[in-house]
Specification:
The complex is a heterodimer of chains A (766) and B (160). Chain A is α+β, with helices and mostly antiparallel strands. In chain A, 28% of the residues lie in helices and 26% in strands. Chain B has 160 residues and is α+β, with helices and mostly antiparallel strands. Classes of the chains: A alpha+beta (766), B alpha+beta (160).
Chain lengths: 766, 160
């Protein structure tokens, strides 16, 4: 017994904040009701493009219960939000209307119903302008400019070697164009913020949100007060998946401005329809790829053009452009790569962050083409991927070389060892069977997208328990549990005695946004360092008490134990109490700072990410040729996660992310006509139900990542992309026809069967 | 108007306006905020409560219809000694909870199922929970949790 082996990290543990959730005690923002609380409701433009001529408040103010109406000129600050300066999005419209969900006025009232009636009663004058609804229109010669600087939001290039030359010389070339649709986050809790004036010149905003410091900064700026006057408290958040950032900022500013004007708390709780129309979506895309290879299947070059429909505002488009750019060539060793990635403004609901962040789009395109190349070469699709898979020491598309934690080959080999599911007897010849593969990579943490620092505190109390605080948020993904495990592991105390506090901006260090699968990796590292610093302090104390050198002591199960005689032990509560009385520090703030991204901005060659998660998926499906119905018989999801911290949480992330990927690939489609979303509800926008679930099996590769705690790296996003891509390949395998557009719905499949496009199916019985 | 009903075992007498939804009475008047509103249209299941043992979307139910009924919400599920109901325990043990917003409604639908069908097949669970959307878990662990709770309840009956 040395205390060296991991005792809590790697163990299957329950969610540390789970009891409140299963008993209904957890407080989400809309569960708070304060004396004098008002309800806010926004009036939206209702048309995709136009000039706002004016808003008359009189009729709304006559509605019983309506207390106040805010328009753009009532906001005390710049009325501007965004992610990357210069910001382009107003909180309340002034002048240009750029999408139908744009808020033009904000009504607060004694009841939610009165606020809604007030919003409907407003006299809003908009002069219509023909909307720009496709990227081609937006990029066309002489197109009306949606924003002052034109219709290109952001565009970047990645240049490695000479792709044109290599393609011209390549013996085998395939080319195709792929498209993907918008997708809604559809978290179960719609966006909700509650602003409470403090009476002390401060304001507190309780928010269902992902990045509290982003809210604080933009709320303060738009109220024209110093950031320290605003306190943002993250309430329990009912899912986010990238979505509760811009919109949480928008309604946070509205609630706070109204709260300051009225001196009363103001709650904004979006309805489901507002959540779909008035907050960001996943970018729709069109991606053209040309791949050149040798006859033996070695890829020599890829040339890729990505166009992302970013809708009305920039939001996260610049970073999604970059992420798509960097990941488009796939997890392969390719000497020559050229990628151009561009986001375009249109008069539609803006697109932004959504689990995967540009990677699901490019992975679908890239992995579809891998299968097309395999077919052309007459090669097994998985073998083709294996030949080209990145190995330790290989250069990625950006020329970055990882000497370790490149576990793609191992992930592929796991799939190879798994036998395909048996096809049952089918005398009716009713079913078609198919199997699809996908390989992918996903950059961990912000990398080139921004600063990568997390500050975490660990505080030990005199009773030997610990309190952990950091600025990254629990959104359901289980990060609190991971942090608690790490603190418990390092301090040698029971998991049950660790508390991970709610995030409020007064009490924790700004840790950057909770995005990019970075919580476990960068956040976990900060907790680990803070815990180790506190431990050092406690070891000093214990060494005095045990009258030995601190190297001779380890902590385990809440005791300080002498290595050479484990019976000699002191409860840590006594050590902590003694430390308090003797002035040994019991709290530390530690930072994990990822190595900085260093790259050429014109070519994107250089070190971009601290690590990649690598994945290989296989999906086997059965298609009913009479109805087009798909049943997933097996779904294997192998990921190199570096080191598993909590297997239950890992499976949860992989299973949940996979179903979002499946919905994306097969079911979910934003139906829009003339710039208005027509299916902004759960009856018409098909989120997978329990009957649509897929039998995902999580398979683990652990190639230690030197930049993560215990070697861990994140896994939140990767399963989305891999699942969507292997689904599309499985359908193509079953039907013998390639679909180049996501989603591939049941109707698409049926149409292919009935039209005779499906070479394997045909309309025998349909 | 006045209504009286029993909620989580306790008698309630309330003055309500006729257009009030059962969801609002439970959340705003009685403070039972474990009952969640996810869509307001009966499409997501987050507001599911049991009315006379049957799962109901409380966002679609006029509060007046609660008259004379027995209502059970997630808050009424713990045993008198404060310990968790087998479904709550199983959701926790199996990792069937992520963000937890769908969880109360999901557990109430599952409770209605197990009350009716103590040893359900997977198909029974799919049917019973098909009106409850979960965006986080992928549902696999939810199915496992309901199965496990059924087993535990069965053991409990044999032991008891």
């Amino acid at each position: 017994m040395t205390g060296k082996e991991l005792r809590i990290v790697g163990r299957r543990v329950r969610k540390v904040d789970g009891i409140e959730l299963v008993t209904g005690q957890a407080k989400f923002t809309a569960d708070m009701k304060l004396p004098g609380m008002l309800y806010g409701f926004a009036r939206r433009a209702g048309q995709p493009a136009g000039k706002l001529e004016g808003v008359k408040k009189d009729e709304a103010l006559k509605i019983p219960g309506v207390v106040d109406v805010l328009t753009a000129e009532d906001l005390p600050g710049p009325n501007l939000i965004g992610v990357l300066p210069p910001f382009d999005q107003p909180v309340l419209a002034t002048g240009d209307i750029r999408y139908a969900g744009e808020s033009v006025a904000f009504v607060v009232a004694e009841t939610r119903e009165a606020a809604k009636r007030g919003a409907a009663a407003l006299d809003v004058r908009i002069t219509e302008v023909p909307p720009i609804l496709t990227v081609d229109e937006a990029l066309g010669d002489g197109a009306r400019k949606i924003h002052e600087n034109g219709n290109i939001t952001f565009s970047r290039k990645l240049i490695k070697g000479d792709a044109d030359k290599a393609l011209a010389e390549a013996p085998v070339v395939v080319e195709n164009t792929y498209e993907t649709s918008f997708q809604d986050h559809a978290y179960l809790e719609p966006e909700t913020d509650l602003a409470v004036p403090g009476g002390d010149g401060r304001i507190t905003v309780y928010a269902s949100c992902q990045s509290p410091f982003h809210l604080r900064g933009l709320i303060a700026a738009n109220l024209s007060v110093p950031a320290g006057r605003v306190k943002v408290v993250q309430s329990n958040t009912g899912g986010s998946f990238g979505g509760k950032d811009d919109v949480a900022v928008e309604i946070g500013i509205l609630a706070a401005a109204a709260a300051l004007r009225t001196g009363r708390p103001v709650l904004v709780a979006h309805e489901r329809g507002e959540s779909m129309v008035g907050s960001n979506l996943r970018h729709a895309s069109r991606i053209t790829i040309t791949t050149g290879a040798t006859k033996e299947g070695k890829i020599v070059a890829r040339k890729i053009k990505i166009i992302l429909d970013g809708g009305a505002y920039a939001s996260e488009s610049p970073f999604v452009v970059m992420k798509a750019l960097i990941h488009a060539a796939g997890p392969y060793l390719i000497p020559h790569v050229f990628v151009e990635s561009t986001a375009v403004y249109t008069n539609k609901t803006y697109a932004g962050a959504f689990r995967g962040f540009g990677v699901p789009q490019v992975t679908f395109a890239s992995e579809s083409q891998m299968d097309e190349l395999a077919a052309k070469l007459g090669m097994n699709p998985l073998t083709l991927r294996k030949i080209n898979a990145l190995r330790p020491g290989d250069a990625t598309a950006t020329g970055q070389v990882f000497k370790q934690s490149v576990g793609l080959l191992q992930a592929i080999e796991i799939l190879e060892k798994e036998r395909l599911p048996e096809k049952p007897e089918d005398p009716s010849d009713r079913y078609l069977y198919g199997t699809g593969h996908s390989c992918m990579l996903q950059g961990i943490s912000n990398g080139a997208e921004g600063v990568d620092v997390v500050g975490a505190t660990v505080q030990v109390s005199q009773d030997g328990s610990a309190l952990v605080g950091l600025g990254l948020t629990e959104l359901g993904q289980g990060s609190r549990t991971v942090y608690a495990q790490i603190a418990a592991e390092e301090l040698g105390i029971p998991l049950e005695t660790v508390t991970v506090r709610q995030v409020d901006t007064d009490s924790v260090h700004d840790s950057g946004p909770t995005v990019a699968s970075r919580s476990t990796t960068v956040g976990g590292m900060a907790v680990l360092k803070a815990a180790r610093e506190v431990k050092e302090s406690l070891l000093d104390m214990a060494a005095l008490m045990l009258q030995t050198d601190k190297k001779e002591i380890y902590f385990q199960d809440g005791f300080a134990i002498l290595s050479k005689n484990p019976d000699a032990r002191i409860p840590l509560r006594e050590v902590a109490t003694a430390a308090y009385w003797t002035g040994h520090p019991l709290m530390h703030l530690a930072f994990s700072k990822a190595p900085e991204a260093k790259y050429d901005h014109d070519t994107h060659q250089g070190s971009i990410y601290i690590a990649y998660n690598f994945g290989a998926h296989r999906m086997s499906i059965r298609i009913d040729r009479w109805t087009g119905e798909v049943r997933v018989l097996e779904h294997l999801a192998a990921h190199d996660v570096g080191k598993v911290i909590n297997p239950v949480g890992l499976e949860g992330q992989v299973e949940g992310g996979s179903l979002i990927g499946y919905g994306y690939a097969h079911m979910e489609k934003i139906e829009e006509s003339r710039g208005i979303i027509r299916n902004a509800n759960f009856a018409d926008y098909a989120v997978p139900s329990i009957k649509d679930r897929i039998p995902t099996r999580t398979l683990v590769v652990e190639e230690a990542n030197p930049t993560g705690p215990y070697g861990a790296k994140g896994v939140g996003e990767p399963p989305v992309a891999a699942t969507a891509a292997c689904f599309a390949n499985a359908v193509s395998d079953a039907l013998g026809v390639r679909f180049t557009r996501l989603p591939v719905t049941r109707q698409d499949i049926l149409r292919a069967l009935q039209s005779g496009a499906a070479t394997h199916g045909g309309d025998k019985n349909g | 108007m006045k209504i009286s009903f029993r909620c989580n075992g306790k008698p309630m007498q309330l003055e309500i306006s006729p257009e009030t939804r059962a969801l609002d009475v439970l959340r705003d008047t009685l403070g039972l905020t474990g009952v969640k509103e996810g869509c307001g249209k009966g499409e997501c299941g987050a507001c599911t409560v049991l009315v006379d043992g049957l799962p109901v979307s409380s966002c679609l139910l006029p509060a007046a219809k609660l008259e004379g009924t027995e209502v059970l919400t997630i808050e009424g599920l713990r045993k008198p000694d404060g310990s968790l109901h087998p479904l709550q325990q199983a959701f926790l043990d199996e990792g069937a909870v992520q963000c937890g917003f769908c969880t109360p409604g999901m557990i109430m639908s599952a409770k209605a199922l197990l009350d009716e069908t103590p040893r359900p097949q997977v198909e029974d669970i799919e049917e019973a929970l098909s009106g409850n959307i979960c965006r986080c878990t992928g549902y696999g662990k939810i199915v496992q949790a309901v199965m496990r709770a059924a087993e535990k309840s069965e053991e409990g009956r044999h032991d008891g």
